[in-house]
Amino acid sequence: MREIDELINVEDPAWPLLVQELSGTGVPVEVLPVDAAAARACLGRLQVSARSNLGAVVLHCGGLLVDGGWLRIYGSPGDAGPGGLPGLAEVNAMPASLDPAWRPEAGLVVAHDVLGGVFALNGSDPLRYGRPGEPGEVVYFAPDSLGWEALGAGHSAWLSWILAGGLQEFYDGLRWDGRHDEVAALNGRQGLSFFPPLWSAEARRDLSATSRRAVPMTELLGLARESCLRLDGTDPGFLGAA
Question: Percent of the chain having pLDDT more than 90?
């Protein structure tokens, strides 16, 4: 186990370069304030250094709200109250104190979108948990197909892809008129529940005709997991705890 100062005081920290990317992007991104104590604790439990973009996000910001909150990338927020964005530690159910035995075995959830989609970093043995891709690769649980997809990139490349506008094509077919107002009305712990659901033929045919309501993200993720089990008996595994 590396000490926290060893994780923070590194050569070539990622944050300055990430700030440049954030400043130069044409994608709307809000950088939330950080809780310094929570950031240090989370970084110590993760055992990742500030040289990585993952470590930089955890250490220096409370999260990134991309495209008006459509995508929430988790950090270490200063206010994680009832409606505030939860932190990476809470979302991944990390132990309250440093536990050398704790590992995010299936993978580390790094972001959710308002549809109930999950971005996660694969653990050391993805096949064991029925996930595609390589260890350390970002994978996406798609609520419109109820399955995991490998994205072919690690965390840093994934974040650069987002800031370069990659989400526009990624969510093609999953956007509708008026979505910005609906997303803006959500708090940091809510997503949108669709009826008929996103994976149904009706929603695929005409997404704008679906009805949508705000629900807790935990409820939305639970419904997705139940749907996977009911429809084909496949358990997608851990999708996030908040």
Answer: 90
Q: What are phi and psi of 66, to 5 degrees?
A: -100, 135
- 163-167: Cβ within 8 A, 24+ apart: 163/21, 163/22, 163/25, 163/27, 163/29, 164/25, 164/27, 165/25, 165/26, 165/27, 167/27, 167/66, 167/67, 167/70, 167/71
The SS3 assignment for 149 reads strand
- C-alpha span between 203 and 197 (Å, rounded): 6
The pLDDT score that the predictor gives to residue 79 is 65
State the pLDDT at residue 197.
Answer: 97
35 neighbors 76 (Cβ within 8 angstroms): yes
pLDDT of 80 reads 64
Cα 179–chain centre separation: 19
Closest CA to 46 of 85, 86, 7, 91: 7
